[in-house]
Description:
Its EC number is 6.3.4.19. It comes from Candidatus Minimicrobia vallesae. By secondary structure, the protein is α+β, with helices and mostly antiparallel strands. It has one domain (5-78). Helices cover 46% and strands 12% of the residues. The chain is built from 4 helices and 2 strands; from the N terminus they run E-H-E-H-H-H. The protein has a two-stranded parallel ribbon with strand order 1-2.
Amino acid sequence: MSRTEKDLVVAHFDHGIREDSASDARFVEALADRYKIQFVCRREKLGADASEELARQRRYEFLRGVATDFDGVIVTAHHRDDIIETVAMNLKRGSRWRGLARE
């Protein structure tokens, strides 16, 4: 059986790291609604001091659960400036060059 647009589910995990992060969830929900795609969301309050690793772990726990619930696969989308954003955030937090290097 091939998958079609009807099989899509938009899953959004709101880390609660930024105070205004709920607006991102509303934006994604509105897009899903506009395109008539089922939307699933979870919000947690990890807080501003949460590590990227914790945020990633919680996001993928949520996504794996959604994939299981819908017998689906996980496909993520990131913007082109993710690396730039990560570098900027780490510099803001006081990271030196070793903190910016990839493993």
